[in-house]
Amino acid sequence: MKWEYIYISVFLLIFSLIIFFIDGFKCYTMIAFILGAITSLLSGYIGMAVATSANARVTFNAAKYNDDDMCYRKAFNVAYRGGMVMGFCLVSLALFVLLMIIIVYQSKKNKIK
User: Fold this and answer.
1) Of 36, 30, 25, nearest in space to 13 by CA
2) What is the spatial distance between Cα 83 and Cα 51, in angstroms, rounded to a whole number?
3) Would you tell me how many other CB atoms lie within 10 Å of the CB of residue 71?
4) Could you report the per-residue pLDDT of 79-113, keeping only the tens digit for each?
5) What pLDDT is recorded for position 67?
6) Which of 22, 24, 49, 68 to pair with 33, CA 20 to 30 A apart?
7) Are 33 and 19 in contact (CB under 8 A)?
8) Which residues contact 105 (CB under 8 A, 6 or more apart)?
């Protein structure tokens, strides 16, 4: 996992510089790109942690009951709830970062005028 993040960091650095030069040496697009990439990396880490935890609980609930109907129902409910937690967490993180970017950029825009 360490090497994956090293490769992603190099990719992020190179493309941030490309965006910076293409955008006419303005840093707003580059900052948004970097924040989006960091948010994506954090979302991937949180998603994998929640999915791993939910999968262990699903397996436990599937093996706990002798009745097939009951074990499928319990395991499905745990899996569904784990997916909901992961989805809400990732969407709220993305919306929070987007909202912060909009607020900061609008305050900068209002100060320039």
Assistant:
1) 30
2) 7
3) 15
4) 999 999 889 999 999 999 999 999 999 988 777 76
5) 86
6) 49
7) yes
8) 28
Residues 39, 97: contact at Cβ < 8 Å?
yes
pTM of the model: 0.80
As a dihedral over the C-alpha atoms of residue 4, residue 49, residue 89, residue 71, rounded to 10 degrees, the angle is 140
52 alpha-carbon distance from chain centroid: 15
Cα dihedral across residues 97, 99, 105, 107: positive or negative: negative
For tokens 């998603």, the residue is: 47
What is the token pair recorded at 104? 């900061």
Of 52, 15, 48, nearest to 34 (Cα)? Answer: 15
pLDDT confidence bin for 64, thresholds 50/70/90? confident
Across the range 57-76, mean pLDDT stands at: 89
